């Protein structure tokens, strides 16, 4: 009986369901209208979330850009002081030989000091004089020497010359040292500020474009320190990295993707490559230190070692990007080539590789950009040294842009603050350039099928 | 009992001096057997159509005939496939040369993303079939002519092949296969991605190519098999059920399964 009853119930239920199916849906019912409203609201909310995410990202970018540029742009300009220099023959070339070797050895600092003393005759006493001489940078004498060597007829004449100022004087002129603060709280005393005001009133203080920043190596004196040494070091390091990691990475990717049998060994290799991409870069630095310096005794602080170390770090990136690019080539192209009787190597070199190249290049450039910005592993292999000379090759001691930034950020002088930001701008400029190149190459070589 | 009659039937289709033969061909994808004891002869300068429901192994069998299955991992092949009485799975056979002798046209048109000219010239170039630019030009022109494409593309040879229509692309793929002068052309559902007009053109072309080449075509359309082929082989669940003259297969099939398939009762 119960069976019968439940059967009847089922039938009744079935009838209701089928009955519902045949009733036309009332699309204008309040319930469905509410649903539509809810859906619109959900879509609006989602759009707002997305927009706010972008807004936050843009805001972060603007804040970063503003803080770097506002701090750093002044480093592209340098304060110069105009002095009346008497090119004293007695000091430059007492015997009138005209020999560049003798002129080159002359005491040009003395000329500048004479000029300063003449300008401010009231200054006396050792420490006061030293303060006075600090108005002009120690590098100014090299400028004078260059000038005289280029044009020896200057000897014996008096000329108004723009001389590069010392860093404190430069900071005062740029407004980073305020004359209104208490004398004890600033690097320049009232007397020095007074000299500055005198010079300004004579129109002898001027900001000029700071070419030295782009042509010099590092220096203890902020006004003489430049980015070029680090840029050249970065260049050599990246060249070594590229020469090693690009061919090795691409060949490894081709082998793994196109030729390797699918077995346990290749799986282990693949997993390890993916893991290597996630290894902290300092570990590669330690590896480089041990293998290249301690075992192979390669030169310390040299771009060749930095390049070798960074190549290890970049390889997984290039392999992974190249494999993705190779995998994206449609299999129909391989089949077409194989079906025509192309050998597997011909199939890869004639068809797969050219089609995968935009992706491979993009991955490589992004890997290179990563290497350009890498600091930690280079600290381990001694590229953090203070190096004044511009490196002449991959075996010379050098430093790189991010390490230079790190070094300057660590320096106590106020003037290095703006140098740090300016160096960051230069580094970011290179990075934007490289990424732009990646986009350009991808657009140029991209083929549609 | 059914097994006995079936094997008796699949052993039957011996023709005099076939261009290609398959003997007791078994194929495994890993542990899955996809082909069971296939025995089939391909007659020279005829079109042989392979028909059967999806997943019956006809495309797999086709790919055995130029060893395209070699490129797939985990494929094991037992049995014998011969071309002019030589086993193509023999170690002494160079698979690259074999694929030049047995051309292939695929389901989806797959021109290289290069110019029309370079697509056709690719095969002769890699096999070193030509000595001069003029010879190559001639091969390209004749191949396009044979594929019935020359009239449409002769003014745009340097243009990218991907700019052609689907039907033109497929005929370009046929021209590309023809350019290396293969003896056999395998076609894996060459018209399945084409509209009826393009299909008609390709079918016409197949009929013309028959005078010079041995053609094996896999098709889903029984009408197409009836239109273009002289011999038809019916595959079902990895087994060759029946093979014979196309007229006979379509008008008077011997096997119940063939009858069922061609009358549309299953498939």
UniProtKB/TrEMBL annotation, chain B:
Stored Pfam families: ABC_tran (PF00005)
Protein keywords: ATP-binding, Nucleotide-binding, Phosphate transport, Transport
Domain of life: Bacteria
Record domain ABC transporter: where: 20-262
Record-linked SMART domains: AAA (SM00382)
GO molecular function annotations of the record: ATP binding
CDD domains referenced in this protein's UniProt entry, alphabetically: ABC_PstB_phosphate_transporter
UniProt xrefs under NCBIfam families: 3a0107s01c2
Protein name: Phosphate ABC transporter ATP-binding protein
């Amino acid at each position: 009986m119960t069976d019968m009853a439940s059967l009847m119930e089922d039938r009744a239920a079935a009838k209701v369901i089928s009955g519902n199916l045949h009733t036309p849906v009332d699309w204008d019912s309040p319930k469905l209208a509410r649903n539509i409203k809810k859906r619109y609201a959900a879509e609006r909310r989602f759009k707002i979330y997305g927009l706010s995410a972008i807004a936050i990202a843009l805001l972060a970018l603007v804040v970063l850009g503003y803080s770097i540029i506002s701090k750093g742009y002044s480093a592209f300009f340098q304060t110069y002081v105009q002095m009346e220099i008497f090119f004293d023959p007695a000091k430059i070339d007492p015997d009138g030989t005209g020999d560049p070797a003798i002129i080159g050895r002359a005491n040009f600092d003395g000329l500048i000091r004479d000029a300063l003393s003449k300008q401010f005759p009231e200054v006396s006493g050792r420490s006061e004089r030293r303060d006075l001489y600090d108005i002009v940078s120690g590098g100014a004498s090299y400028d004078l020497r260059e000038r005289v060597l280029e044009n020896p007829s200057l000897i014996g004449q008096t000329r108004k010359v723009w001389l590069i100022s010392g860093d404190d004087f430069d900071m005062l002129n740029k407004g980073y040292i305020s004359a209104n603060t208490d004398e004890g709280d600033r690097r320049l005393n009232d007397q020095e500020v007074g000299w500055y005001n005198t010079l300004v009133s004579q129109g002898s203080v001027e900001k000029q474009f700071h070419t030295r920043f782009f042509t010099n190596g590092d220096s203890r004196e902020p006004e003489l320190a430049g980015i070029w040494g680090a840029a050249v070091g970065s260049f050599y390091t990246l060249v070594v990295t590229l020469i090693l990691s690009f061919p090795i990475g691409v060949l490894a990717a081709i082998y793994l993707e196109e030729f390797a049998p699918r077995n346990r060994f290749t799986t282990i290799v693949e997993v390890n490559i993916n893991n290597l991409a996630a290894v902290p870069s300092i570990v590669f630095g330690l590896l480089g230190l041990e293998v290249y310096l301690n075992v192979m005794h390669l030169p310390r602080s040299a771009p060749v070692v930095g390049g070798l170390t960074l190549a290890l770090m970049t390889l997984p990136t290039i392999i992974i990007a190249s494999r993705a690019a190779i995998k994206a080539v449609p299999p129909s192209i391989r089949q077409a080539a194989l079906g025509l009787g192309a050998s597997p190597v011909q199939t890869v070199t004639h068809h797969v590789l050219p089609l995968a190249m935009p992706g491979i290049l993009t991955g490589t450039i992004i890997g290179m950009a990563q290497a350009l910005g890498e600091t930690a592993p280079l600290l381990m292999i001694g590229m953090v040294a203070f190096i004044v000379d511009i490196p002449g090759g991959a075996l010379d001691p050098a430093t790189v842009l991010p390490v230079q930034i790190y070094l300057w950020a660590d320096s106590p002088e106020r003037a290095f603050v703006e140098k740090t930001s300016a160096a960051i701008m230069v580094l970011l400029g290179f990075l934007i350039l490289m990424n732009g190149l990646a986009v350009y190459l991808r657009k140029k070589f991209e083929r549609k099928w | 009992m059914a097994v006995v009659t079936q094997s008796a039937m699949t052993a039957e289709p011996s023709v005099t001096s076939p261009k290609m033969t398959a003997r007791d061909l078994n194929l495994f994808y890993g542990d899955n057997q996809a082909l069971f004891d296939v025995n089939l002869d391909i007659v020279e300068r005829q079109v042989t159509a392979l028909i059967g429901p999806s997943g019956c192994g006809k495309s797999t069998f086709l790919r055995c005939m130029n060893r395209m299955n070699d490129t797939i991992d985990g494929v094991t092949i037992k049995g014998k496939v011969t071309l002019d009485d030589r086993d193509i799975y023999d170690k002494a056979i160079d698979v690259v040369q074999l694929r030049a002798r047995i051309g292939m046209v695929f389901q989806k048109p797959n021109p290289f993303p290069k110019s029309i000219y370079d697509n056709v010239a690719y095969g002769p170039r890699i096999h070193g079939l030509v000595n001069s630019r003029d010879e190559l030009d001639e091969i390209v022109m004749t191949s396009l002519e044979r594929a019935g494409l020359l009239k449409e593309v002769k003014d745009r040879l340097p243009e990218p092949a991907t700019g052609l229509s689907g039907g033109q692309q497929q005929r370009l793929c046929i021209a590309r296969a023809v350019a290396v002068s293969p003896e056999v052309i395998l076609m894996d559902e060459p018209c399945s991605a084409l509209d009826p007009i393009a299909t008609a053109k390709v079918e016409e072309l197949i009929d013309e190519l028959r005078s010079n080449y041995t053609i094996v075509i896999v098709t889903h359309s029984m009408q197409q098999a009836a239109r273009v082929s002289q011999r038809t082989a019916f595959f079902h669940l990895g087994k060759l059920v029946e093979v014979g003259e196309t007229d006979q297969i379509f008008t008077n099939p011997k096997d119940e399964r063939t009858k069922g398939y061609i009358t549309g009762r299953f498939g």
